[in-house]
Amino acid sequence: MPYYNVWTGDDTKKAVLSSLVPFGAAAGAVTVFYKDSECVKWWEKIEKPKWAPKDLRLYSALDILTLSPLGYASYLVYKNGGGFDYTDTTVAMGLYGANLAFAVATLPIVKKRNHKCLFFNTALVHLTALGAAYAFYQIDKRAGYLVLPYALWTGFYTALTYSINRLNSQNETKTDMDFVIEKLLFFQIQPPNVNIKRPWFLEIPSARFVAIAALCSYAMFTAGIVYNVINEPPSVGSTVDERGISRVVPVMPHRVNGQYIMEGVLASFLFTLGGLGFIILDWVSGTDPTWTKNGRVGWLIFALTAVAIGFFGSRSLMHMKMPGYLS
């Protein structure tokens, strides 16, 4: 397993960029949760064990604080583990990616108000966090230590959601797990009731701003911004034809895991355009009485056109990269 002791300015940029992924996911999820007043009311009203902290801001702060270091830890593993050419590095990064996916899935589950599903999803988050911490530690000890607080916090979450599921289920009584947590773990330890106040210059962004920010971040990451920063590919390629004339190659052929910068921008545009089409379709299909017939039909045509362009354009782009794709 290679270990690179030299840390350059380029590594710093890549590490900062990698750190933005989990931080952005945590901050975005917290913002969306607080914007949904029904979710906040549901969380405050459900029966929770006595040892559970009452202040929602404590949960939010610890979510962001424990999740944020994972991006830097993942880059340490990627750099010192030799990249995806090594199996253990690939496994570690796969566990990290799976953990982020399960963590992001927590928000829609909370919106569904399903106690049982929330517990199982939180358990998966905790298990993948433990696996990532162990795999990271085997490659870079610093990375393993950075993931450890998050693994412990998700373990607490798992115990909490388990107790919530049992307390809010019909015809259920407290179990041995509740007794262990309440009588042993928190017999002498009292959870702090931290009174965290929001700074005066910070305001909760509007739903429209969050939607636009999510769409822009989706466009950036589907454009391959992380790949471009790490591998620094050219904007376009070039080749010499049989007559000795240099020609521009806009798409990197026969490489699904490689791209030119402009190729990624084009793919991102097609993906985002198609996704925007589905968003507009959902918007138009609502029961808003202010819609006029012509306005609804116009937006419907635009949405269907955007979906069609995104689909067929992406398919054509894949045919240029892989001529035998889906043939």
From TrEMBL:
<comment type="similarity">
    <text>Belongs to the TspO/BZRP family.</text>
</comment>
<comment type="subunit">
    <text>Component of the oligosaccharyltransferase (OST) complex.</text>
</comment>
<dbReference type="InterPro" id="IPR038330">
    <property type="entry name" value="TspO/MBR-related_sf"/>
</dbReference>
<feature type="transmembrane region" description="Helical">
    <location>
        <begin position="15"/>
        <end position="35"/>
    </location>
</feature>
<keyword id="KW-1133">Transmembrane helix</keyword>
<dbReference type="InterPro" id="IPR004307">
    <property type="entry name" value="TspO_MBR"/>
</dbReference>
<keyword id="KW-0472">Membrane</keyword>
<feature type="transmembrane region" description="Helical">
    <location>
        <begin position="207"/>
        <end position="230"/>
    </location>
</feature>
<protein>
    <recommendedName>
        <fullName>Oligosaccharyltransferase complex subunit</fullName>
    </recommendedName>
</protein>
<feature type="transmembrane region" description="Helical">
    <location>
        <begin position="56"/>
        <end position="78"/>
    </location>
</feature>
<feature type="transmembrane region" description="Helical">
    <location>
        <begin position="90"/>
        <end position="110"/>
    </location>
</feature>
<feature type="transmembrane region" description="Helical">
    <location>
        <begin position="143"/>
        <end position="164"/>
    </location>
</feature>
<keyword id="KW-0812">Transmembrane</keyword>
<dbReference type="Pfam" id="PF03073">
    <property type="entry name" value="TspO_MBR"/>
</dbReference>
<feature type="transmembrane region" description="Helical">
    <location>
        <begin position="297"/>
        <end position="318"/>
    </location>
</feature>
<comment type="function">
    <text>Specific component of the STT3A-containing form of the oligosaccharyl transferase (OST) complex that catalyzes the initial transfer of a defined glycan (Glc(3)Man(9)GlcNAc(2) in eukaryotes) from the lipid carrier dolichol-pyrophosphate to an asparagine residue within an Asn-X-Ser/Thr consensus motif in nascent polypeptide chains, the first step in protein N-glycosylation. N-glycosylation occurs cotranslationally and the complex associates with the Sec61 complex at the channel-forming translocon complex that mediates protein translocation across the endoplasmic reticulum (ER).</text>
</comment>
<dbReference type="InterPro" id="IPR042416">
    <property type="entry name" value="OSTC"/>
</dbReference>
<dbReference type="GO" id="GO:0008250">
    <property type="term" value="C:oligosaccharyltransferase complex"/>
</dbReference>
<feature type="transmembrane region" description="Helical">
    <location>
        <begin position="260"/>
        <end position="285"/>
    </location>
</feature>
<comment type="similarity">
    <text>Belongs to the OSTC family.</text>
</comment>
<feature type="transmembrane region" description="Helical">
    <location>
        <begin position="117"/>
        <end position="137"/>
    </location>
</feature>
<dbReference type="InterPro" id="IPR021149">
    <property type="entry name" value="OligosaccharylTrfase_OST3/OST6"/>
</dbReference>
<dbReference type="Pfam" id="PF04756">
    <property type="entry name" value="OST3_OST6"/>
</dbReference>
